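Q: Give me a protein?
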Amino acid sequence: MSLVDSLMVSLLGLIVVFLMLCLLCILIKVLSVIVRFILPQMDTLEASTIKRTSIENVPTYRITSGRAEVLDDGCSAGELHLLGVDEKTAAMVMAIVSDECQIPLSELQFKTIKAID
C-alpha cells in the first residue's frame, strides 16, 4: 500500500467517524425534543408531590466526642459518627444532601460523615 493510499484510507476513516458523531448529535437533539413534547408537565408534577420539611420538624442533635445523638424528636435512626468533620460542617452537609435529594431531613439516615483529604 502506497503512502497516498494510506492517507486516503485514514481520511476516509476520519470522515466516517465525524459523520457518525454529527448523526449522533442530531439524534440526541431530536430525542430531547420528543421527550419534552411527551412529558411537558413533569416539572410541575414533581414540584407538587415533593413534601418540604419545616424547621420545627428537624431533630435537634447533641454532638459529643465525634458522635451525634438526637436530643428530641422520636424518629432517631441511630448514631452519627463524625470523622475529621466539625459539627457545623456536618450540619451543612446534611442540609445540602437533604435539599439536593428533595428528601426531608427527618427521613434521611446518616451513619458516618468523613472528611476526605
